[in-house]
Each structure stands twice: as C-alpha cells, then as structure tokens.
Amino acid sequence: MWYRQQITLKPYTRGFHLITSDITGALSRMKEISTGLLHLQMLHTSASLTLNENADPDVRHDMEAFFRDRVPGDLPYFRHTLEGPDDMPAHIKASLMGTELTLAIDNGRLATGTWQGIWLGEHRENGGSRRILATLFGE
C-alpha cells in the first residue's frame, strides 16, 4: 500500500516541539500497515524535523538554547535579510537539523525507541502553520 497525505500543523513558537501525536493522529491509515515505513517531509525551508527525547522538555529547551548560541540572528555578513533577521538563521538551522524523517512502522504503530518522539524545529519567531507531506508504504 502507498498512501500520501499532507498534514498541517498549528503555528508554534520558536523552539522545538514534540509533534508525534499530531502526526500519528492525522494518519489513521497507518493502522492498516503491519510492516512498513513512514516518510515525513517538511514543506518549508525555515523549520525542521528530527527524532529525539520525548519525555523531558528540558532537552527541547536546551536544544533551542544551543542553536540560538551557535546560529545567532543579525550577523553582519548575512545578505538574505528581507524576510527579517530570524529568516537566514532559520534556513541554516533547518539545513543542519534536516527536513525529512523516515521511520519504521510495526503493527500499525511507529517503531520508535522508548524515549523517542518526532520534533518540529520552529526556527522563526512567527513561522505560522507548517505543512508536512507524509507518505506511508507497507503491507
């Protein structure tokens, strides 16, 4: 079975957000797959997807603090500034973190580790709603 669906996330504040339930809740067809894959593709250039800690929100806070320190806004050599001082740093963070995930499906559920969850990295102050293209493949 192949199935593709676009998922629209509500606007989030700048930072990292656990969105596993948003993704799995939107994909009722995943329950039909005993063995397969879920591919997620962020349809934006200033937000990212990653798989990381799902229990302690301090991990998401610390990740955002790390990236704010390593990729600050308003660097004097940035030329791409028409969309605001947080846009070019957001593009850099999205490239570093990545905009795609491929996850295993086992018996209708994501086959993730105990402490793993899907994160949205919102790298803009006001990024707005975000779209993710989800593709399911399996039997």
From TrEMBL:
InterPro entries: UPF0047_YjbQ-like, YjbQ-like_sf
Lineage: superkingdom: Bacteria
Family matches, as PANTHER family: UNCHARACTERIZED PROTEIN YJBQ-RELATED, UPF0047 PROTEIN C4A8.02C
The family this protein is said to belong to: Belongs to the UPF0047 family.
NCBIfam families given in the database record: TIGR00149_YjbQ
Protein name: Secondary thiamine-phosphate synthase
Native source species: Kushneria konosiri
